[in-house]
């Protein structure tokens, strides 16, 4: 009975990865009582012969107050079952558990060495619930509950705790995490960090600048328009280089030679193959993309590799009154953990952010009558901020040599190919944004 209720409910959740496909079976793999009226469940969802596992906090109440009505999953024997992530009276147990390093039937709640956790703030679910659910406790902490579970330590926990131990700048302080064994492997279920209460998302800041530019008279250049972002783009470049330096110091590094460079080009091609099969609009660009990837195969110099962010864009950075802070070191969602933890060229992150300036510049263009004129201004905005970011990156000690141009270009194009797939699946009206990256310039 509970299984059926959960199957119907889970398929409607924003974070459920198998939307649009029928659920063949849902089973409960683990069910731990965390506190009175609060259970922690790991469920396995079977679709088309494949299995994904998700976690949920199951609340139980005899009467569900109105403020929790939206979280109702169903009623069994007169007991209301609901998503307790939305119930601050229940989620306070997670904070208490981490503060006291508690364990419950295989579920381990931990705090970072030396971190003092104030257990008084109550939580709210962060509005933009996407692939995960984030709980914000007062203005002190943000605890990300990873919904779809992949066995292993989450790269975000791994990286942020390693950088914090080095007292690295540009990261949000880690406080605690929750873990359990999945298939015999210690697996991160949740990760809690400092909440940057007085900070703005990089994407929102960039868009404010772009809007100003669109609203301004045509003769006004990107540099003259109000809300110029280039100073911030430069600072972000500096911060990015510093984070790369810290990652290289905290984790192993290597250099890859000719045959591994060829393998990298092959992986760009594989991604392209998959994306073309999914999105036919990519077809006219295949030959130009192949040429760009071939340039990589011709490289003769060794390429330095290290741990990187992996899914770097303006939505992953926040501007505090002091400086930029980098968030979400999880890598590209949906990729296998081994791939997300693999060493890579830091140019991959540089390329990700360059793409993001293009995104910010272009995303308001779609469907606007005056688009041709705006297109020019959008391009000017993107060019200016991309250049400023690269200047900052060099200023911060990041190295982009002349021989790196082919690799940087290939990373950028490959990111755009990934974005084409991402937009086709999630936001089809945004598809023209990454497609514009393939136009000859
Ligand atoms: N430490 C933090 N302080 C303040 N806001 C944060 C923090 N971490 C994340 N956020 C907010 O949550 C949003 C989503 O966070 P993110 O880690 O990118 O989650 P997801 O993996 O679901 O994309 C960010 O764009 C930001 O607005
Ligand atoms: O933030 P996530 O880890 O969930 O990353 C995924 O979603 C992103 C969108 O939210 C997506 O980023 C793309 O859109 C951004 C604007 O919304 C833009 O700044 C990025 O440059 C662009 O790639 C990201 O690719 C995806 O992995």
TrEMBL record:
Entry annotated with the keyword Acetylation: no
Gene3D superfamilies: 3.90.1200.10
Superkingdom of origin organism: Bacteria
UniProt xrefs under InterPro entries: Kinase-like_dom_sf (IPR011009), Mak_N_cap (IPR040999)
EC number(s) stated in the UniProt entry for this protein: 2.7.1.175
SUPFAM superfamilies named among the record's database cross-references: Protein kinase-like (PK-like)
A Gene Ontology molecular function term of the record: transferase activity
Record keywords: ATP-binding, Carbohydrate metabolism, Glycogen biosynthesis, Glycogen metabolism, Kinase, Nucleotide-binding, Transferase
Family listed: Belongs to the aminoglycoside phosphotransferase family.
Assembly: Monomer.
Protein name listed in UniProt: Maltokinase
UniProt source species: Nonomuraea coxensis DSM 45129
